[in-house]
Amino acid sequence: MSHARSEYADFKALAPDVFDAVLALGQFAAKAGLDQQLLELIKLRASQINGCAFCVQYHILQGEKLGLSADKLNLVVVWREAPLFSARERAALAWTEALTLLAGGVSDEIYAQASAEFSEKELTYLTSAIASINVWNRFGASYRWTPPARPSAPKAAAS
Predict the structure, then answer these.
(1) Distance between CA 20 and CA 4 in Å, rounded?
(2) Of 108, 78, 74, the residue nearest 93 (C-alpha)
(3) pLDDT tens digits for 53-83?
(4) Cα(45)–Cα(72) distance, rounded to whole angstroms?
(5) Where do runs of H (alpha helix) occur along the chain?
(6) Of 111, 75, 105, which Cα lies nearest the Cα of 92?
(7) Residue 60 · residue 52 · CB < 8 Å
(8) What is the mean pLDDT of residues 36-43?
(9) Cβ atoms of 121 and 32 closer than 8 Å
């Protein structure tokens, strides 16, 4: 059983400047107008690849808040085999995998697929979101941050 080496709150307290910089990088894509549900899917996929339990759980919870279906959240790990992802989502997920598994580089095919679905500006901001989640994953996975708990539903009042 693994245990946390440090926690998310510890990172924020120890290095608030780094925390703020990584947080800001991750917010640029949404501010530029990229769909927030799409951004949660790519953050979830990168976090799965990187084995960051904190970020996987965090982005599942964020996706739920944004109205992503349980099917999409559950099947993002096998998005190629699941017909419910749009061409734009598929391009974003392929781009995410290529940038997260960068050792092999980014193929012309994946670049062409992404460029067909995203403008040059959108692709730049999508790349910044992927870069940001990969930074968060490096912290979360290396320090084994404890995944956030699912908020409990309010209890019904007794009658």
Answers:
(1) 22
(2) 78
(3) 999 999 999 999 999 999 999 999 999 999 9
(4) 11
(5) 8-14, 16-31, 36-50, 53-65, 70-75, 87-100, 108-117, 120-143
(6) 111
(7) no
(8) 98
(9) yes
Q: By the 8 A CB rule, do 54 and 148 touch?
A: yes
Please choose, from the candidates 79, 128, 120, 76, the residue with its C-alpha nearest in 3D space to the C-alpha of residue 99: 128
b/e code 52-86 from CB counts within 10 Å (16+ = b): bbbbbbbbbbbbeeeebeeebbebbeebeeeeebe
Using alpha carbons, select from 38, 16, 55, 63 the residue that is nearest to residue 138.
55
Nearest-angstrom CA–CA distance, 135 and 26: 10
Q: How far apart are CA 34 and CA 48, in angstroms?
A: 21
- Token pair for 115: 């460029």
Q: Is the pLDDT of residue 2 over 80?
A: no
- Could you identify the residue written with the tokens 């759980």? 57
Q: How far apart are CA 142 and CA 8, in angstroms?
A: 11
